[in-house]
Design a protein that fits this description.
Helices cover 76% and strands 0% of the residues. It is an all-alpha fold and 289 residues long. The radius of gyration is 18 Å and the shape is globular.
Length: 289
Amino acid sequence: MLTKPRIALLIGILCISIFPVIVRMNLTSGLISAFYRMAIATVIILPFALYKEKLKLENIKMLLPMMVCGILFASDIAVWNISIQNSSATQATLLTNLSPIWVGVFSLLFLSFRPRKSFWLGTLIALIGMTVFVGVDTILNLQLDFAFFLGVLSGVLYALYILVSKSVLEKLEVITFITYSMIFSTIFLLIINVAFGEQFFGFSNKAWISLFVQGIVCQLIAWLLISYSTQKMRATRVSLSLLSQAIFATILAAIFVNEKITSVQMIGSVIILAGIATTFYEKNATVKL
């Protein structure tokens, strides 16, 4: 059954699926790309949040978990950008998409939340699909280098962000959470870029267009929708659904950068979607998000 949170999640995933295609173009460095993605989105949403008085907090202590979310998300984006630019996009995507496993493990260990059997079964099916999708050769040829470590780290950071944001969104409105989180992300990435001596200007027109697309579509629109879904749905289900971005990214890459979609990728895509669908299966008649 298509509910509003599920529709929002689907559209949000479509929006973030554009991101890997843009990153592969290597129009800017990974760190600068991450900074402008957050900064542009923040500049757009901040006036709206101020006008709607969404930045007022009843409990000032909520700033800390929002800062943690901002730093986690910023770190994930930066690490993933560097990973995908220093290895194959396929390897980086595969390792980052291990995040559902981390979500399930962290939920079990630290949140006393026992994921349903349907989640673990769906995760297993989806990971088999991901293996088929990227190719067995890619799995066998994984190199335990710095890029490999960054890919794994990105998945861990992604999982932590989903879990922490889920707990914060239970107490705050989406606009409030997103605005504060992106402010902290922007400040953190600004410091990181300055520390690494990155250049903030002098890009081509094509690069600036890509940065605005990342900020508006991949960040602002996408994560407003995904955060809304995270607020309404189980974190484990959201994290596994995000695996489908690999499928949509491949389709978009075929459209915009003329990458070919193979029959093996199509089979892998079907298996991934079957795994995601498994987590939405309920034994009883009551439909839950």
